[in-house]
Amino acid sequence: MKITHEIKDTTIIITLDGELDASSSVILDEELSDPEIMTYSKILVDCKNLNYISSAGLGVFISHLQRFEDAQIKLIFYNMQDKVRNVFEILGLDLLMTIVSDYEEAMTIADE
Amino acid sequence: MNNTITVNCTKKNLKQIRDFVTEYLAGFQLSDILMNQIVLAVDEICANLIIHANHEDPSKYISLAVSEKNNTVKFEITDNGEAFRRSEYKEPNIDEHVRIGKKGGVGIALVNRIMDKVEFETAGTKNTCLLYKKIK
After folding, report:
1. Do residue B104 and residue A60 have CB atoms under 8 angstroms apart?
2. Residue span of the structural domain in which B91 resides
3. N or C: which end of chain A has fewer CB within 10 A?
4. Angstrom distance (rounded) from CA A12 to CA A9
5. What are phi and psi of A54, to 5 degrees?
6. What is the rounded distance in angstroms from the CA atom of residue B109 to the CA atom of residue B89?
7. With an 8 Å Cβ cutoff, are A52 and B105 in contact?
8. Is the reported ipTM for this assembly greater than 0.85?
9. Taking the C-alpha atoms of B116, B122, B128 and B134 in order, what is their torsion angle to the nearest 10 degrees?
10. For chain A, which domains are there?
């Protein structure tokens, strides 16, 4: 799992590249636990190259969701592969999290 | 074709297990989504065994055997760690997990929803988890 980020004004774009499993999700948790992330108003997660996610990866997002909501930080996933989106859907997480098709849509929602 | 793999109990070996399952299933022409679901279910069970049943002790091992009969794939995962107590298992309430910021506890729910049949057996010190999925 390779995680990179790019900052655009008050938006942080996190790009996930690889597989998020019980082993690799630790680094995502570290990234999302960084106090600096709370200084942004939007967190966009580019899932184009996220080829796999297990419950450990989902758990990292689940565990931070309320904290971001409380701070009115928008968490938006985009470019998600169908097979990965399906895993979110099995648990109904697609109803609790914002998943959109592409970057443009993510930015539009983020600006609302 | 060798249909069994044994790995020691470190999380780094989960990738090897997923690759093994993917390779086995490659001959069945499954959709991307179904292939991913089956790989995920096996990964979840193995992760639980490595982390919770065997406390990531690299001197311990888990084994996975896979077979197919009548369009149903069967996975048999064995270890010698602490047995999974199904009677104590509760389906997670995801809203509650979000509210309290809980990180774990949704893996078995995924397995139960993906697989057609999930069984846990213990005989002496050996625990076996059996997963069945119809693929056609």
Report:
1. no
2. 4-134
3. C
4. 8
5. -110, 180
6. 10
7. no
8. yes
9. -20
10. 2-111 (3.30.750.24)
